[in-house]
Design goal:
By secondary structure, this protein is an alpha+beta fold. It has a single domain, classed as RlpA-like domain (Barwin-like endoglucanases, Beta Barrel). 18% of the residues lie in helices and 26% in strands. The chain is built from two helices and five strands, in the order ββββαβα. The protein is globular.
Length: 94
């Protein structure tokens, strides 16, 4: 277990992604965190039973009432990129 960081930790499908994998998330319509389009680097640090599939994730908003309000409205389409070394991707394709 590692401490989760609000706005930087993401839960992923553990059968598809390794914890510690960096992801770039681009969700222009998501403005719940700071009123700007959501574009940032996040780290896979958690999992959840409802998170299934390669392009699904749950953004950790933190704890407390304010975080609960953010988490309650976050259901946005996003581009979801796993950042992996080029050599690893090339080896998987062969």
């Amino acid at each position: 277990k590692v401490p989760l960081t609000p706005g930087r930790s993401i839960a992923v499908d553990r059968l598809l992604h390794t914890f510690g994998t960096p992801f770039y998330i681009d969700a222009p319509t998501l403005t719940a965190f700071d009123a700007k389009p959501f574009r940032r680097l996040m780290i896979a640090q958690d999992t959840g039973s409802a998170i299934t599939g390669s392009a699904r994730g749950d953004l950790f908003a933190g704890s407390g009432d304010a975080a609960g309000e953010i988490a309650g409205v976050v259901r946005n389409a996003a581009d979801f990129y796993a950042l992996v070394p080029r050599a690893l991707v090339a080896g998987a394709i062969r």
